[in-house]
Amino acid sequence: MKAAEAAAGAPSFWSLLRLSSFSSSLACFYVYFSDSLGFSKEGCKKHELYVSFRDLGWQDWIIAPEGYAAYYCEGECAFPLNSYMNATNHAIVQTLVHFINPETVPKPCCAPTQLHGISVLYFDDSSNVILKKYRNMVVRACGCH
Q1: Half-sphere exposure of 90 (CA within 13 A, CB side)
Q2: Which segments constitute the TGF-beta family profile domain (predicted)?
Q3: Facing residues of 121 across strands?
Q4: Whole-prediction pTM value?
Q5: CA 68 from chain center: how many Å?
Q6: Which of 1, 14, 68, 121, CA to CA, is 20 to 30 A from 46?
Q7: Binning pLDDT at 50, 70 and 90, where does residue 25 land?
C-alpha cells in the first residue's frame, strides 16, 4: 500500500478501477450466459396482486380506496442471473458461490427493489376521518438480493 493511501485510509484510484472492472466483468459474464442458456424456471419479476380491504375485514374503518394493486415479487434467482433481474453485486457473487457449492449459501431471493406509497382515507379510533399516505405499499420493481 502506498504511503499516501495508507495515511488517508482510502483505496487508491487503481484499486477502485480494478473493483469496477471486476463488477463490469461479472455483469458481462452473466449477460452473455443468460442470453445463451435457457432455463425452465421463470426468473424474478413483478406479479399481479390486488388487495381488497373487504377481504381483510377492514371495510368498517377504511373509507377509500376499497383496495389497491399491491403486486408482489417472485421467481428464480439462479445462475446465471439475467440483466433484467436488477441484481445487486452481492447477489451476483452469492449466486456464483451457490452455483459452485450449493451447501455454502442459498440462492439470492427475489424481492422488491422499488416501492411506492398509497393514500388511504380511514376512520381513527375516535371516528375522525383521516387521510394518510402509507409508504412502501406498492411494488414497482423486483430484483435479486
Answers
A1: 7
A2: 16-145
A3: 64, 131
A4: 0.67
A5: 21
A6: 121
A7: very low
First to last CA, the chain: 33
Q: Rounded to whole angstroms, how far apart are CA atoms 39 and 10?
A: 42
Residue 6 lies in a domain: no
Would you say residue 46 has pLDDT above 70?
yes
Cα–Cα nearest to 45, from 100, 113, 107: 113
Please, which residues have CB within 8 angstroms of residue 141's CB and are 6 or more apart in sequence?
46, 86, 112, 113, 114
Domain tally for the chain?
1
Residue type, 17: L
Query: Is there a domain that residue 102 lies in?
Result: yes
Mean pLDDT in residue range 35-40: 46
Range of the domain at 107: 12-144
